[in-house]
Amino acid sequence: MMGSVKSGMSEANRIPIRSEISCEGIDRILSTISHLLDSVPPEYLPGLQEIVLCDSYVHPQENLYVNSSVSNGNLPAPPPYWGLYYRRNARLEPSIHIFVGTILRWFPAPMCRFRICREAIFGHVLFHEIGHHIHRDIHGGGGDPEKAADQWQRQLNKGFMLANHPWLWRILRLSWVQNWAKRWRERYGKQDGNAGTCDDRALSQAMGSASGGKCSGIDLFEQGELEEAYLLLENAVGREQPPGLATLYFACLKAVKTLDRTTVDKVITQVHGNVEEDLCEQCWGATLFDLGYHEEGIQHLRLAVQLKPGRNRNRLVLADRLRRRGNDEALKWYESVLTSELGEGKWSAYRGLAHWYLDSDPKLSVEYTTRAIELNPYNADLHYLAACGLIECDRRLDAIDQFQAAVDLGYDVTEAAFGGIAECYRDLGQREKAVKYAKLARKANPQSDYVRRLCAELGCTDV
């Protein structure tokens, strides 16, 4: 596959893309990599020297992170890597190598002739390695690098899909599509107990669900996307032996859905010894709090922090519940996350502070939300929160942009975002536009009392 060197450059981010191989379709692959790279916000790429397209991984290297078909440090020989990230050292600037030859040996050539297939396959690799760059060089590392890279991979893929294939993104989010993908992976993907195979992870990425070795529902739960996590966890529980995180997380979701604490109370004893004790206390406490057992829930959450104070998520979950009770102790825990050496969860801390100051100091709230969006730009809830703060600051045109961004990113309560836009136009004296968005809100949820009141106020009660 070796041949003449070809090169290109990302138009938006101006990062060189160099090909060291010559094979059928390499020009299409170069173009696809450039297109994918252009979708990445520039603030995530400082210091990245180049993208190199190679045949295959040959020799073990130092100072790299890899995206491979099998994640198992005890293997006697290197697995077939799809890509790797060379982190900064005394001799080298950060770079990403993508092993096109290896990838093409996994997928039939006709498949890679379709642009959307190339985007799914090469986006899976590129965004994962960029995730390592963000985690290591932009945010300073800390925590599990593979998990951090997978989380960034999912966010970058979501942003790319929404910008280029919004119709497909909405289809892939449908529960029956995700269930089909799950059954496909169960039937054809190799289950090694550690990580999915290459085709397993690539399909997972293409379906818009979290990639990585664990049940993707676990990652979705930990990222707060609970509706999507529920179905995946429900399917995983029966196969998880012994009962572990998937069983625990599903029990928490089911307890809240059925308003019955006995579900999670029983599972805590089943997973004891298989799940870290602080995670058990954290999940137990958060679930009890959400079911209305506030004091008991807070006690469990405090115990989780005592058991493992270095885990940012323990502090964040405690802070969020304290905030919801109006307890200013929450501010201390949010600040402790922000001053932590770990990058994990800092956007959540900024979000919590933005919620706290939304009524008392909306300008400061917007400031914190802006910082959160810089760290997590594809989170629809953050854009909705920013819009609420901007309204309080009398910046309605900016608020309209943020409400629209929330809708574009798949905000769950669509009618609230459309209603917010309608109210902004109403306050700006643009009644025609206000009516238009009020009708969109009604179309999204005709049963909403809020939407009915808004439509009645604007006089658009016609069906």
Describe this structure in words.
This protein is an alpha/beta fold. The protein is built from 22 helices and 6 strands. A 6-stranded mixed sheet has the order 1-2-3-6-5-4. The longest helix has 24 residues, at 115-138. Mean pLDDT is 79; it is low at 1-5, 59-66, 68-79 and 188-215.
Tell me the strand order in the biggest sheet.
1-2-3-6-5-4
From the helix content, strand content and strand pairing, which structural class follows? alpha/beta
Order of helices and strands: EEHEEEEHHHHHHHHHHHHHHHHHHHHH
In percent, how much strand structure appears in the residues? 5-15%
Average pLDDT across residues?
A: 79
Total of helices: 22
- The geometry reads as globular
Provide the low-confidence segments as ranges: 1-5, 59-66, 68-79, 188-215
* Main pleated sheet: 6 strands, mixed
Helix content class: 55-70%
**Radius of gyration, taken over Cα atoms and rounded to an integer in Å:** 23 Å
| β-strand number | 6
Q: Tell me the span between the first and last alpha carbons.
A: 63 Å
